[in-house]
């Protein structure tokens, strides 16, 4: 994987070789050169010379671009629409064409912008050079956020077996389950969204980002805050958060989540190899966090493809007005891809038995 990333950086960017070596996880330029020569039977400089001759290669400045591959079909407009409705103002900027956000990783700060590449089976990432040293982590988070490792052929083949889902899957075989760039950020957003409309929760989340997120300078007026850190929220009082329009009980839930994060009791990130059921149980033990919220967080932040938000009203209604128990029973046929089934159901009008 290190050499594959290095090869991509050599051919798609003009970053110096030593920066590429460190960004790819090598401890020195010599080790990088030796490994590259053994694997590809040529020095990195030869590959770079070939790439420099390509006029399409992006040049210098403060940013570079990389392709993020995915398996077709891929519903980029649908994914952007989902993220736009839940956009964290000042931290994220989502349009019908791109997703952009500020980034803080391992002490590095910057911003990224993602569009659909002309070659449809890839997204195009633009990132600031200040993030070069954390590229492996950055790329992993983006692949999670945009669900780029999904196998739509496998998932669709399974879900089509249910006659209720078959027409939905046929209409949108490229459906993805949006993940989370930052697990704690998603947890905050999920708690704020309890028992309120998506639009109202998005407005309050924006206030939270403005109040508790550190300032950052970017070329875009829409991006001027970093996402709130657990340490900042953990120090806040219920009153500090309540004045933003958050009910007291939810303020306590948010603070409890932040403190659990800081204590290492509940790390929220798909790359941490969770036991999903154990994580859901721990989430549900937090004050004011119910099963729906815990499973929604598991679906997006923990990237559990079989998460099913218990008692989801939209799911029950769109399945023809069934009860929560009936919906749970129906969902057993969709395992291990229930998260994808839920996204299909959320996006469609009520469906009935065929």
How would you describe what is shown here?
There is one protein chain. This protein has a five-stranded antiparallel sheet. With 354 residues, the protein is of the alpha+beta class. The chain contains 18 helices and five strands. It has helices at residues 2-12, 17-23, 29-40, 44-52, 76-85, 135-145, 152-159, 166-171, 183-192, 198-212, 230-235, 238-242, 248-262, 276-284, 291-300, 313-318, 324-331, 338-346, and strands spanning 63-69, 92-94, 98-105, 108-116, 122-128. The protein is globular, with a radius of gyration of 22 Å. Among the domains are: 1-56, Arc Repressor Mutant, subunit A (Orthogonal Bundle), CATH 1.10.10.60; 149-176 and 308-354, Endonuclease Iii, domain 2 (Orthogonal Bundle). A hairpin with a 2-residue loop joins strand 3 and strand 4.
Keywords, separated by commas or semicolons:
5 strands; single chain; 47% helix; 354 residues; alpha+beta; Endonuclease Iii, domain 2; Arc Repressor Mutant, subunit A; 18 helices
For the termini, the CA-CA separation is 46 Å
Range of strand content: 5-15%
Provide mean pLDDT, rounded: 91
Q: What summary fits the major beta sheet?
A: 5 strands, antiparallel
Pick out the low-confidence regions: none
Q: Could you state the order of secondary-structure elements as H and E?
A: HHHHEHEEEEHHHHHHHHHHHHH
